[in-house]
Design goal:
- This protein has helices at residues 16-22, 25-28, 32-48, 54-72, 85-97, 110-146, 166-191, 210-217, 226-231, 234-260, 288-312, 326-347, 354-358, 368-377, 382-399, 408-414, 428-434, 443-459; strands spanning 151-156, 159-165, 193-194, 221-222, 268-270, 350-352.
- The protein has 462 residues and is mainly alpha-helical.
- It has two domains: 13-106, Fumarase/aspartase (N-terminal domain) (Fumarase C, Chain B, domain 1); 111-358, Up-down Bundle (Fumarase C, Chain A, domain 2), CATH 1.20.200.10.
- The strands form three sheets. The chain has a two-stranded antiparallel sheet with strand order 1-2.
- A hairpin with a 2-residue loop joins strand 1 and strand 2.
- Helix 7 packs antiparallel against helix 10 (234-260) and helix 14 (368-377) crosses helix 15.
- The longest helix has 37 residues, at 110-146.
- It is elongated.
- The two termini are 43 Å apart.
- Bound molecules: arginine.
Length: 462
């Protein structure tokens, strides 16, 4: 058991249950690197400002760097009896450099220290997430480009609707993921404000230089209110909200692919190496990865709720409840990173079942809107055109006939404007190519978007 940072004022040892219940070392140990980096900047500042002797500052920096090396090399032994990562690093520094380490906590509290550590951690993780999202976008783009001529029946309400290019569908994922990335980067820009120096919550009488610490640690700015600095965790909530929205996108993508991999759809085949089997049904090849992606997204929504609820009743300034913001934050980040990583690999192992898909494109229901628009182009109002096509579709369904088999006379029964040339548009290629509106599914439009995304994603270093 390491020595408590506040032990002297206490006339008794704390109860073992108190130690166990209040300790956060089991989870905040992952902040060790940031705790050391923050302390190095702080120690340098204390020396520069002559708040402590320069020699002590230099010794602390040396000791902390050596702890950083131990951490990197996996040599650092976390003390599971420590109250938290701050006490653990402080004790480790005492062991390395002796009494000079006692000066490290000058003009600092664990309240501003933990706010700093989490902000540094989130900044780094957002950079990692940005890279992973870009990788996923690239994997999706690759699949889209490889299959840029494939047309699929599109669905609304999960009912056959209209033909679209598969690439168009896949590019929709890329658009959503881009917004997710931008949301995370926005959150990062807002949290890029350095809280150290707020101390417990009111600042300090010592002549600290907060801007120097911010510069040393690569922060854009310093927080302007010491109470706010230790009190709020809106930056965690914001990151979790961005992760939750991203995870909803990932879950919906997983759901599309689960459906597409069913025998009923047969749009895709997922490589065996990314599927699992059944212990009882020998024929099974299940998309468990996608199901687990969909399933674990619930947890991320829970993480966001958990921090929102944690915060809602807290009085201003620091409260120990804030310690519990970390497990949900870590869980959400870990889970999203895992999902992104496996999704990249999965996209590289998807085969598009072109023949099976082509077999579905004969359904004339897919072209009903094209026929409506054919009539509109001949001067018929939208309402009237919808009615004409509606009765034609109904009759064909009732009589088991196809529009493409109707004679000109039969077509004229519905409207004199319906000529046999309408049959030309009962075709997936033609249908898709008619959609030339900006952002539509026409080949030219989709090719423009494929090129745009290639440019945008190539520009991004990952
Ligand atoms: N472990 C705490 C947290 O995660 C930081 C320590 C603050 N403790 C205190 N008694 N002021 O928020």
């Amino acid at each position: 058991m390491s020595k408590k940072l506040w032990g002297t004022r206490f006339s008794k040892q704390t109860n073992a249950l108190t130690n166990k219940f209040t300790s956060s070392i089991s989870f905040d140990q992952r902040l060790a690197k940031y705790d050391c980096l923050g302390s190095i900047a702080h120690a340098k500042m204390l020396g520069k400002q002559r708040i402590i002797p320069k020699a002590d500052s230099a010794l602390m920096v040396k000791g902390l760097n050596s702890i950083l090396q131990d951490l990197k090399g996996g040599k650092f032994k976390f003390d599971l009896g420590a109250e938290d990562i701050h006490s653990n690093i402080q004790e480790a520094l005492v062991k390395k450099i002796g009494k000079a380490a006692f000066k490290l906590h000058t003009a600092r509290s664990r309240n501003d220290q933990i706010a700093l550590d989490i902000k540094m951690y989130i900044k780094d993780e957002i950079d990692n997430l940005e890279g992973l999202i870009s990788e996923l976008q690239k994997a999706i783009l690759k699949l889209a480009k490889k299959n840029s001529e494939v047309i699929i029946p599109g669905y609304t309400h999960l009912q056959v609707a209209q033909c679209v290019l598969l690439a168009h569908h896949l590019l929709a994922y890329i658009e959503g993921l881009e917004r997710d990335k931008q949301r995370l980067l926005d959150a990062k820009a807002r949290l890029d404000v350095m809280p150290l120096g707020a101390c417990a919550f009111s600042g300090t009488s010592l002549p600290i230089d907060r801007s120097y610490v911010a510069r040393e640690l690569g922060f854009k700015n310093v927080t302007a209110n010491s109470i706010d600095s230790v009190s709020d965790r809106d930056f965690i909530i914001e990151a979790l909200a961005a992760l939750s929205i991203l995870s909803v996108h990932l879950s919906r993508m997983a759901e599309d692919l689960i459906l597409w991999s069913t025998k009923e759809f047969s749009f895709i085949d997922i490589d065996f190496s990314f599927c699992t089997g059944s212990s009882i049904m020998p024929h099974k090849k299940n998309p468990d990865i996608l199901e687990l992606i969909r399933g674990s997204v619930g947890k991320i929504q829970g993480d966001l709720s958990s921090v929102l609820i944690l915060m809602k009743g807290l009085p201003s300034s620091y409260n120990r409840d804030l310690q519990l913001d970390k497990p949900p934050l870590f869980d959400a980040i870990d889970t999203v990173k895992d999902i992104l990583e496996i999704f990249v690999a999965l996209f590289e192992n998807i085969v598009i079942e072109k023949e099976a898909i082509a077999g579905r494109l004969g359904d004339e229901a897919l072209f009903s809107v094209d026929v409506v628009e054919y009539l509109i182009k001949k001067g018929i109002s939208y309402r009237e055109a919808h009615d004409i096509v509606g009765s034609m579709v109904r009759d064909c369904l009732d009589k088991g006939r196809k529009i493409s088999c109707l004679s000109e006379k039969e077509l004229n029964k519905y409207s004199p404007k319906l000529k046999t040339d309408v049959k030309k548009i009962l075709n997936a290629w033609v249908s898709v190519n008619l959609k030339q509106s900006y952002g539509g599914t026409g080949f030219t439009q989709v090719n423009l978007q494929l090129k745009r995304w290639k440019r945008l994603l190539e520009r991004r270093k990952i």
